[in-house]
Amino acid sequence: MKTLSLKTLAVPSLLIATLAIAGCGTTTGSRAGSGALMGAAGGALIGSLSANAGAGALIGLGVGALGGYLYDQHRRGNID
Considering the entire predicted model, what is its pTM? Predict the structure, then answer.
């Protein structure tokens, strides 16, 4: 019997978590927070494939938070 590796299990788990978190947030803080969580998870996953999960998570955290903030501002009509 073949055993599944952590990387094989991480991709579907990340996809499920991303879909669950993506629907969250009606305020600027919650949208930036959920974006940060999705970014950190994605960054950690990508970073683990290149043997540097910590750096990937930090980069993903920043990009996700910025993306969530910009999405919120767009939804409010502050950014076109």
Answer: 0.61
